[in-house]
Amino acid sequence: MSTGRLDQLLAQLRAHATLPVDRAVLLPPATYTEPAILQLEREHIFAGEWICVGRTADVPDKGDYVTREVPSPHDDSLLSVILVRGDDAVVRVFSNVCVHRCATLLDGDGSTARITCPYHAWVYRLDGQCVAAPYMQHTSEADGSPFDPANHRLRELPTEVWEGFVFTSQSAAPAPLAPRIAGLTDEVARYRMSGYETVAGGTEVWDTNWKCLAENFLDAYHVFKVHRSTFAKESDSTGGTTVHPGGPGYTYHVAVDDPASAYGVAHLDNVVLEGTWRHSTVLAAVYPTLVVQLQPDWLWYLVLSPLGVGRVHIRWSLAVAPEVVASEMWSAGRDGDAYLTRILDLLAAVNAEDRPVIEGVWNALHHHDAARGPFSYLERNVFDIGRYIAARVTGIASD
Ligand code: FES
Ligand SMILES: [Fe+2]
């Protein structure tokens, strides 16, 4: 893209960032397809924003760890991080890089008392401190003093926990997340989702821009059409959906389901949720890359990482409310597995409905006829995240 065209696009985005909601439209198509915009997203969004790397429930016991990924601020790669619960029960996030010679320290998930590098066996405590390094007795530190493991630590990244989700940032001193999403906390705290138990998860790569997928997750308009064989099969909740404008770090809507639905309804042993909240689902984004479908019975969320303008890495997870896990519907030997299988089949079917549509959007965004028609009120959240992106990449909003 020539400098002149990029300047023109940025001027459009600057205008978009302050567009009133009654003029809501899609971001300019080049915002999705243009590598120069992805580079600005890296600099103004991924380099400093809070990125979700899992939930505290993923590492319930001391020594438990999972490896996750965050977008590189520089290129299309993903950077591996370790989420680990220390001997002191504190959850920390470290760059998954040995400070000796850059080996990747851990793969996958597991539990360990110490982190031992697979390359030359430097040993780290779970608070990141190096405590042993074999065959280093003849070595000096950079300042000439004798080598001492105490001088070496894994790089610890900032951590903030919100409603059981663990976030990290590649900025050394990011502005706190909680104040930016306080309005969302007020709405979702009633679900007590930090107590939901992780039961399944995985990764996928889809051929679309990461924003197309975030927008689709937040789009209350497409459900009655695209998901008429899944989410909208028993009843169409579109008319009962309340779309909220969100705040500086989030946006959301609430769909009220039929209380007789097979899912999206509180278990009888849930004595916390009241009234219509017993059969309401919150669909939310914590900017930039966490999208959440929070129900009284389970929680489905995605963390999105761009792998270029036209590919997105998706890490998804499913967690189930504790009273469901404790109930007869989950007990071993009864239909617990069938219940889980039913949810996973549903989510697979939902993905199979969404994927061709949003990969198709990605293709059409390249078209010289790519259009920007007016939004329905049900697309309010799509507009909200679009304005957030526009404000960030143009430097209008920053922390
Ligand atoms: S790279 Fe880890 S000990 Fe050498
Ligand atoms: Fe969808």
Short description:
The protein is an alpha+beta fold and 399 residues long. The protein has helices at 3-16, 30-33, 35-46, 182-188, 210-217, 223-226, 322-325, 336-364, 380-393, and strands at residues 51-55, 64-71, 78-85, 91-95, 109-111, 115-116, 123-124, 130-132, 156-157, 159-162, 165-168, 197-206, 241-247, 250-256, 280-286, 290-294, 298-306, 312-320.
Report on the structure:
The protein is 24% helix and 25% strand. The chain is of the alpha+beta class and 399 residues long. It folds into 2 domains: 110 residues, 3-layer Sandwich (Rieske Iron-sulfur Protein), CATH 2.102.10; 212 residues, Naphthalene 1,2-dioxygenase Alpha Subunit, Chain A, domain 1. The strands form 4 sheets. The chain has a 7-stranded antiparallel sheet with strand order 12-18-17-16-15-14-13, with helices on both faces. The protein has a 5-stranded antiparallel sheet with strand order 5-2-3-4-9, with no helix packed on it. A 3-stranded antiparallel sheet has the order 1-11-10, with no helix packed on it. Strand 15 and strand 16 form a beta hairpin. Helix 1 packs across helix 9 and helix 5 runs antiparallel to helix 9. The longest helix is centred in the C-terminal third of the chain and has 29 residues. The mean pLDDT is 95. The structure holds FE2/S2 (inorganic) cluster and fe (ii) ion.
